[in-house]
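Final report, Chapter 2: Outcomes

The project's central promise was a pipeline that accepts a single protein chain and returns its three-dimensional structure in a standardized token representation, suitable for archiving and comparison. That pipeline is now operational. To close this chapter, we reproduce one record exactly as it appears in the project archive, with the input sequence first and the structure output second.
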Amino acid sequence: MSTKPTISTLGELRSSGWESRSVKEELRRNAIARVRAGEPLVPTVMGYENTVMPQLENALLAGHDVIFLGERGQAKTRMIRALTDLLDEWMPIVEGSEILDDPYAPSSRFALDAVAEHGDATPIDWIHRDARYGEKLATPDTSIADLIGEVDPIKVAEGRYLSDELTLHYGLVPRTNRGIFAINELPDLSERIQVGLLNVLEERDIQIRGYKVRLPLDVMLVASANPEDYTNRGRLITPLKDRFGSQIRTHYPLEVETEMAIVDQEAVLPDAADVDVRVPDFMAEIVVTITHLARQSSSINQRSGVSVRLSVSNFEAMVANATRRSLRLDEGLVVPRVSDLGALAASTSGKIEIESLDDGRESEVLQQLISSAVLLVFRDVVPPETHRGILDAFEEGVTVEAGEQLSSSDIAGRLAENPAMGKAVAAVLDDEDGPDNPTLVASAVEFILEGLHLSKRLNKNAGSYEAREMPTTN
């Protein structure tokens, strides 16, 4: 944050050459500068570079109010909040103004009186762009007083007349004058309250009860909504929909790699001072693939969506289970294994809705997703030419145990008995020290064995992998 400007009076502000612009002109100017420089509007949101962001750039350049449509966990609120970075860092207001009055064009009774009384000596204050953002989660109990304003009985009790405009207590929208106001889950706002926003979006003013006051507002209104509520339930009134200049449809990450990058950005892992965590790429890819498969599963309710938060929570749960195992086995390095994926039940159950109401169906669906994800990543990562050598060793009677109860050195030590496994491990671990690190090797071995089992090449019994008996033919 830069230093707050020292200009303190209206006269000094005029002498400085500062120009007043509407909030949408301000956003447009700063958006133009970013687009011209090749910088993203929202650097922390990934996967929208060729879909959502061009539409958002168009909306800002056109000076539109915007409504984002998308299922949960599609970064709608994050994009909305990030718009404040496109505002000028500091903005002057009439000091003491509740609605951030423009010193050049005051609109509230307080600011009008202050400028009329003091002229160029009117005190000026500066507010940071973070203070020019307001947000309200639409709930059925939201009232017009919350959004627009109401008579303040305390001010009346102090001796002011009811007809005095100074008795008004402004709501969230006028208090975000000259800024950005966001309403999340807009369709949940009752219809009679939605009507109160019509003037804000079109005439750019508010009217409070029976007062003869027309308060011009300079606000960019941004909203979010779930398409299910927006289109099927019809809870967003038509005149309000018509007043939004742009409607932008969001989506989940289209590629596994993009969602892996989001998980890497968002996941909160144990502090490096406490434990050393290394997550192999194939384990991160398995976690994200589970989410992508869930978005395609007929067993899961797709109307409510499968959030990116599922990937993040599952990643954190997997690492947490690996950390617990590593601490119990007194291993210096924490590396998740396939056996740690059993911990995902707790982090998944609250984030997906199973279509079937049968008891126990949740665990069955989750296990199917995990197995399918492991198999897909196995086929993508492990070279097929390494399979035969590994299987030959098992056909000679080799049995390998795996699971979270075994230490990494116990699992990695079996490589000496199966040189072909060493080639597959080296192909899976792209780290330079991977094949020489028993903790990483153990993770790769479990992954390879589970992949061969899911490919129906090995049998698995109580955590032990052994050669698969081929059916005899007459």
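Archive annotation: The chain has two domains: 10-249, 256-467.
This record, like all others produced under the grant, will remain available to the consortium after the project formally closes.
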